[in-house]
Structures are given as C-alpha cells and as structure tokens.
Amino acid sequence: MTVELLDQRLAALIDGAAEPVRLATGFAFVEGPVWNASEACLYFSDLKGDIRRRWSERDGDTIVRQPNNHGNGMTYDADMSLLVCEHTTSRVVRERGGSTEVVASHYQGKELNSPNDIVVSRSGSIYFTDPAFGRILPDLGVQRDQELDFQGVYRVTPGGELELLDDDYEQPNGLCFAPGEDVLYVNDCRRHRILQYEVSPDGAVGARSVLVEGIQGFDGMKCDEAGNIYITGPPGTDTGVLVFDAAGVQLGMLGLPEKPANFNWGGPGWSDLYICARTSIYRYSLKVAGAHCSYMG
Predict the structure, then answer these.
(1) Which run of H or E residues covers position 136?
(2) Residue 248, by phi and psi: left (phi above 0), alpha (psi -120 to 50) or beta?
(3) For the chain, which residues make up each domain, given as ranges?
(4) In whole angstroms, how large is the CA radius of gyration of the chain?
C-alpha cells in the first residue's frame, strides 16, 4: 500500500513513493496515539485489550498500564499533563505525577456516554467528543444504558466549566483544530461527514457548516501546519488516511494494509505520522509538520 495521488498538491506534502513502515504489531485494536517529545516515544491505547502501551525506537513496545479503563483518545496540555478519554468510566481525566483528576464525567447530572477523542487549545480549553461506542460495543467498554439521550461535542473552559457545543450528531468521533485554532473540525462518522465550526479567540464555538460528506470510515482526524486535513479512510482493501485541503477537496490517500482508527504527529520535527491501524502501529514520514499544538513546545 502506497500513496494515492489525486491532486499534484499532495506531492508537496509527501514523496509519492513513500510507504508505511510497520513499527509494532500483534495488538487487539489500537487507538488514541500521542507523541511525547521529551521521551521520544509514542503512547497509545490497545482499546480492546484494555491496555495503555508505549513504543520507542530504543525500547520497542511495552505495557504502561493494565487495565486502562478502556482508555481511548489521549493528548497533552501545555503543562504536559496527560488527558485521557475513558470508555469504562465515562470520564475525561488528567494524569500527572501519579495522580488522576476528573476533568469531566457528567452533564446536567447525567453520566457522559463514552468520551472518545480530545484536543486542547493553546488558550487552555479542552474539546472532546462523546459517542456511545463504549456503552454499545462490548469490546470497547462496558455495555450499559445511556443516561443522556444524545451524543454530543463538549468544551471544558479554562475555568473548568463543561459546555455542550452541539448535540446534532449520530456518533461524533475525531476532531482537530486548523493551524490558527480559528476553526474546529469534527466528524460524524455514522453520517459520513466532516463539520467545521468557527472558533473565537476566547475558545467559544460559533456557526457550523459541512466541509465533506459522503465518505465512509471517518474516525481519527488531524491537520498539518499548512491547513490540510487528514482523516481515516474507508473500510475494505483500499484503505488509509485521506488528505483534504481546507476547502474539502481530496488530495489523495496514504495507503495502509489495515484500516486505520487514529493517528498523530510526532518525531524530531513533528513530521512523522504515527498511525494506529487495527492490530499494528505504522509510520509515514512527510515533508510537512503537524499543526502546532500547545504541547509541541
């Protein structure tokens, strides 16, 4: 599986002859990768195995935490505290120095569904999606009834208040910021569309519109420093990470031998794309770096 070029602009982002390198394999279902620059390693979730794992060139693959509350999406804040979406507990938690703090667990007195993916803005706001997968799929959490009658997207303000941004979703999944953090992208994977929201400097979210629709398989999503959008692609043998420009035009696909679930930027220059694809971790090296996040330094 190699790069599929649909638009010549993709050639400025990645070598057309590039191929994915498989770094580790043998997992149950991998998700939620995040790169730690100071340790030069990737942390990721083996969601079905209920394990948090660590991979580095020096140490290979090791177990960090087991059980892991069916942890899924992870990111760091500006202080390098780890934020984790937990399916089993229906919480978003912050981990630092051996302690765990609950960031969000209930909305209007009712338990969240199963927080899935998460990003932090440079202003300190936390945004996360809350589909029902950890309640309805037995291998991804604990089967149980929902307390909320919707699946939404939320913001935790720098002051710690939980705000519902939008509940018009079948199942919200991946999300990411444009490089200037003036646009937030969120995908509704069951309705096969990517939505975009205007974001004000204080982190408040405004009007939304549809950017892309009609493509199956949406899950994890990230932007590069040039504003292009990367998102997991369709199921089947022809699968990979789809690349769109900021206007929603598809530039091509980074092919993979397994369907990807999520991915993140890492490496010395933040230009390596580390991809969680079912049973394995893969890496593509690009000519462009990821959109700058607060934890990138």
Answers:
(1) helix 133-136
(2) left
(3) 3-296
(4) 17
Q: What digits encode the pLDDT tens for the residues 223-251? A: 999 999 999 998 888 999 999 999 999 99
DSSP string, 92-116: EEEEETTEEEEEE-EETTEE-----
- 86-143, pLDDT tens digit by residue? 999 999 999 999 999 999 999 999 999 999 999 999 999 999 999 999 999 989 999 9
Contacts of 281 (CB under 8 A, 6+ apart): 22, 23, 24, 25, 27, 30, 33, 42, 44, 55, 61, 274, 275
- Our measurement of the distance from residue 242's CA atom to the centroid of its chain's CA atoms, rounded to an integer in Å, reads 14
CATH 3.40.50.1110 correct for 3-296: no
Query: Does residue 72 contact residue 47 with C-beta atoms inside 8 Å?
Result: yes
Question: Residue type at 127?
Answer: Y
DSSP category for residue 81:
P
Longest dimension (CA), the chain: 53
The two structure tokens encoding residue 240: 């990979």
Q: In this structure, are residues 62 and 76 in contact, taking their beta carbons and an 8 Å threshold? A: no
CA distances from 284 to 28, 96, 130, 185 (A): 22, 30, 29, 22
- Angstrom distance (rounded) from CA 228 to CA 215: 17
